[in-house]
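Slide 14.
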Amino acid sequence: MSQAHHSDDDGARDLVRAWLAALRCALPRIAEDAVAAVAIGVALWLVTVVGPRVEEAGAKAQASVAQYMADLDRGYCEKWGIVPGSRAFIQCTEDLSRLRSRDLTCRAPNPVSM
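Slide 15: predicted structure.
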């Protein structure tokens, strides 16, 4: 009986050793798959959750800047006594916009010299 019991223990040990060896070989692949799954999950989250919020924030920022510039133009043109809504007021704000865009063009870095 002791011989049979000893044989069962050896078989169980061999089975555990074989299982551990297989696991040791499979662990790097399992880890790679887990990292890939997490990366795909993060990418999907960025595209579906963060992406639209970034676009929305960009649109809000652009609207905010446009409103700020319109307020500046209005204040400047009114300072010179030009009535809002008049033809002269429209011309004044268009001139300010043209001057501003020309100023920004002059200040932009030259990509050729970089």
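Speaker note: The CA atoms of residues 2 and 68 lie 92 Å apart.
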